[in-house]
From TrEMBL:
This is NADH dehydrogenase [ubiquinone] 1 alpha subcomplex assembly factor 4. Pfam families: UPF0240. GO terms for cellular component: mitochondrion. The gene is Ndufaf4. Belongs to the NDUFAF4 family. It comes from the Eukaryota.
Length: 170
């Protein structure tokens, strides 16, 4: 409520107030600080001479100053190229199923993509005799220990539909 009231007073007679401000004469600017010291120096040659004269006492002080700096010894790491790849990482083409558009096309050896992980988990769940840990390790270029851990700790989701009779019982 207060905002509406203040807006009314703020916008009342805005155009005429703006015209009145614009039609006023411009105020005279404040006087500038004298910064033309260069002109003053040109008028007094003794100041110019003082500026360019060398002071022998200050020069001797400057000559007495001696700065000695030592950098710490540079240590060269034995494995100098740790962050640089010494050889190209071997990549393999992914084994893509019906989700080929969603997945990457090349994966480093020893790793799998998400789509491949879901596919191999589902294959192992549906046909555990065919898709054993050894076959999966060979097929996807993985270590057997990692495949066993993957099959033990990761389980794909299952959709369960209850018959109509049991829905009523629930």
């Amino acid at each position: 409520m207060g905002g509406r009231l203040t807006r009314v007073f703020r916008t009342f007679n805005v155009e005429s107030r703006a015209r009145r401000e614009i039609s006023k004469e411009k105020p005279t600017p404040a006087p500038r600080h004298p910064t033309s010291r260069l002109q003053e120096l040109a008028d007094h040659p003794e100041i110019q001479e003082e500026i360019y004269r060398k002071d022998d006492r200050l020069l001797t002080f400057l000559k007495d100053v001696y700065v000695e700096s030592r950098d710490p010894p540079v240590r060269v790491k034995d494995g100098g190229g740790e962050h640089l790849p010494c050889k190209q990482e071997e990549k393999r083409l992914t084994k893509l199923g019906h989700l080929a558009d969603l997945d990457v096309k090349k994966v480093p050896k020893g790793k799998i993509s998400i789509v491949e992980a879901l596919t191999l988990l589902n294959n192992h769940k549906l046909h555990p005799q065919i898709w054993t840990a050894e076959k999966i390790a060979v097929e996807y270029s993985l270590e057997l220990k990692e495949v066993n851990s993957l099959l033990e700790f990761f389980i794909p989701f299952t959709v369960q539909e209850f018959p109509k009779e049991t829905k009523k019982a629930i």
